[in-house]
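hey can u run this one w/ hypoxanthine bound, need the structure tokens asap thx
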Amino acid sequence: AGTEENSYERADAIARYLLERTGRRPELAVVLGSGLGGLGDSLTDRQVLPYAEIPGFPTSTVAGHQGNLIFGKAGDRDVVLMQGRFHAYEGYSVHQVTLPMRVFHLMGVRAVLLTNAAGGLNRDYAVGDVMLIRDHLNLPGLVGCNPLRGPNDERLGPRFPSTSDVYDKRMRDQLAEAFKQCNFPGATRLGVYVYQQGPCYESVAECRMLITMGADAVGMSTVPEAVVAHHAGLRVCAFSLITNMALLEWDSAEKANHEEVLQTGQLRADQLKSSVSHFLANFSLD
Ligand code: HPA
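ok here u go:
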């Protein structure tokens, strides 16, 4: 719907290509955030497709983000994993950013797990915690950059979808259980993620504003994908790894930087890998 960039026809052609080339029928898709791409190693029976080899698919450009679609198994379950996602700040349109969700839907995928690195706004949070996303603030969406902007194709979802129920509680509870079972060393939080387009990290005044708006963590991804996946009827579950704390003081000597984000991802990589693998192998949708 909307544009040729994420039309039914384009998504359907890619979905058919992937089903035919891989012979796989994944039940769940996972999108790996900054510094979390190593989770791709945890699947067995892997088949790796670089984005560049998938006709009609965009390609990824940020350091620390790889660009592969990985098909494989977690336990007995078939999953597909995006190692590297597309961000609006790279110059992709919000339609390109969300195209993979429509592809997954048309491949028969029933649920998505979206992951990201985020800055902690809530002062109770600490670097290395995870935050299960209960709700979001779609800042660009509210002011005109919604991924569903444009003519609506009813084959992909309704014209006026709800967003009060994007994040599936059952999947979220099972994810929390997986972090617990695997003794994830950080705290497991439940909070509100605010999406800002980036690529700039927030100013001090912006961080203060976002807190008053009710946000617990801030990042540059996930929400467009969550909205489009939910629109298509996919079950959605998402979490943030808190990689840095947002700065709230003007005279601070520190500043947000991509290296810190990647380092925290590294620090937690193994524990995230085991928790997410446990979730993937054990979750049930009904
Ligand atoms: N702000 C926005 N995006 C981010 C941050 C942040 O502090 N950390 C990781 N992604």
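The two ends are 29 Å apart (CA to CA). anyway lmk if its weird
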